[in-house]
Amino acid sequence: MADSPGPQPFVLIVSHALTGHLAPMLRIAASLCQLGWDISFLGPTAHRHRVEAAGATFFPLRDTADIDDKAYYENPPVEGYTSLHWGERVMIDLRVQCLDPLPVQWSYFTDALVSLHSRDPSRGVVLLAEAFFYGALPLFYGASLPNGLKVEDVLLGSACVSVTVPAIRSIDLPPVGYPFSFDPSIEGRARNAKLWERSWTPKARNLTALLDTKMREAGASRTVNEVFLSGANYKCYETIFQLGVPGFEYPRSDWPSGFKFAGLVQGPPKSAPQAPPKDPDFPWWPEIVANSSLPPTKRKKIILVAQGTVEIDPHDLIIPTLRAFADKADSVLIIAILGWKDAYLSPELYGSDEVPTNARIADYLSYDAALAHADVWVHNAGFGAVNHGIANGVPMVVAGEGMDKTENSRRVAWSGTGVDLGCARPSVEQVREGIERVLQDEQFARRVQELRKESQEIGCFSMIHDELLKLAETKPGIKQRG
């Protein structure tokens, strides 16, 4: 890293433990390692191999902070979790995944800082934090580092990465998850203000109070002093990198200082050499490649469908998609990704003697590898899945709810990049109609290609690289809040 001034700083990456949050941070870690940075990554032990494969030094989260999301959703934290409305599940997840483990996260976060400092006190540390890792927040509210270390002697500066739609309060938007269209008019802003004050503030009261309690337990001397999910976990950082492109996000008028759209992490970094990717190890994969080499008039349409890594019941979306085109084996191939290693779709689970002949089932498969051959991308609207679609220029059909999926679904429709089916478990007819609409209307493909170009022009990895260089040179330190 020849253009880095002085001794090369350590970069410490921290992230919320769920795969959807970790995956983009791991891509950033890998690209920064290839660009010459000394990267350390504080993460859950279930993903240690992925961190080390990216080239980063692994620091483990332990105890209640060491969340394995697959185990979490297989054995939910409360009885009857799966039968609850998604809004209730989100509130539980925010408490259990983000706030309850905050003091423990803080402990292992500061241990990592002390360890890096002890290796070479002259180098300093730049913090790159995924927004929903709350364990770094006490740093900005008066908490002290262990062993008598001063924050200004360890931290050179900090930046945040937002891997979801930005949960930052705006006069132009209702609270995250509320089912209202984007309306920045005077009337819309009045509606938004009422929703913030009369609905979300009382609904979030317990989480707002819990955040302050956990911050005090971690040693913070000042309170956050704002409603939970208003954006405190973003605004304390010098820079906020929002993964995604402006064309997918509502054009609010009041972005916080330091906010930047950073493009997409999907695909290899363009600034570093890459070995050609290996073909997926499925016996049917050569058929997919061969189909793509045919003239457009002779090609079968490729429909790619996946459930993501959280809501993985194939009856939600995969099985309706398979059934919707089971009678189109002469013109359609469907690639279904189940979402976890060694998962399989048995005839019993599918509900008939055999899975359709035009279905190609993968337990786990790179979205990018499959999207290179796809005509339509069907998924449950996780933010990462949406961005995979944009990065590969493939229009989408989305059907999801919970977490930020409702927000993402509305933005797919608003941005013109696909069709929102408006539910989490659509019927076979709904899926068929949505896919046929995307295939028949070329405007969806044109629009998603426009957003793909936006991302390519931004250059995510080079932007983050340049910002780290700036922080290493200017050493702005840590802004104290409250």
Structure explained in plain terms:
Strand 9, helix 12 and strand 10 form a beta-alpha-beta unit. The chain folds into two domains: about 280 residues, Glycogen Phosphorylase B (Rossmann fold, 3-Layer(aba) Sandwich), CATH 3.40.50; about 170 residues, Rossmann fold (3-Layer(aba) Sandwich), CATH 3.40.50. The strands form two sheets. The protein has a seven-stranded parallel β-sheet with strand order 3-2-1-4-5-6-7, with helices on both faces. The protein has a six-stranded parallel β-sheet with strand order 10-9-8-11-12-13, with helices on both faces. It is about 40% helix and about 15% strand. The protein is of the alpha/beta class. Helix 11 crosses helix 16. The protein has 18 helices and 13 strands. It is globular and about 70 Å long.
Write the layout of secondary structure elements.
Blueprint: E1 10-14, H1 19-34, E2 38-43, H2 48-53, E3 57-60, H3 69-74, H4 86-99, H5 102-119, E4 125-130, H6 151-154, E5 155-162, H7 186-203, H8 205-217, H9 232-235, E6 239-242, E7 259-261, H10 285-292, E8 301-306, H11 318-324, E9 332-337, H12 347-350, E10 359-362, H13 367-371, E11 376-379, H14 383-392, E12 396-398, H15 405-415, E13 418-420, H16 428-440, H17 442-458, H18 460-474
Parallel strand pairs: 1-2, 1-4, 2-3, 4-5, 5-6, 6-7, 8-9, 8-11, 9-10, 11-12, 12-13
Helix pairs in contact: 4-8, 11-16, 14-17
Please estimate the helix content: 25-40%
Count of spatially separate domains: 2
Head-to-tail CA distance between termini = 37 Å
Number of strand segments: 13
What's the CATH H-level superfamily name of the largest domain? Glycogen Phosphorylase B
- What is the arithmetic mean of pLDDT? 92
Per DSSP, the total helix count is 18
Question: What oligomerization state is this entry in?
Answer: single chain
CATH topological fold name of the largest domain = Rossmann fold
Largest sheet: 7 strands, parallel
The CATH level-2 architecture of the largest domain is identified as 3-Layer(aba) Sandwich
Low-confidence stretches: none
The proportion of residues in beta strands is 5-15%
Over the alpha carbons, how many angstroms does the gyration radius reach?
A: 23 Å
Query: What structural class is derived from the secondary structure elements?
Result: alpha/beta
Strand order of the largest sheet: 3-2-1-4-5-6-7
Given the C-alpha coordinates, what overall shape results?
A: globular
CATH class descriptor name of the largest domain? Alpha Beta
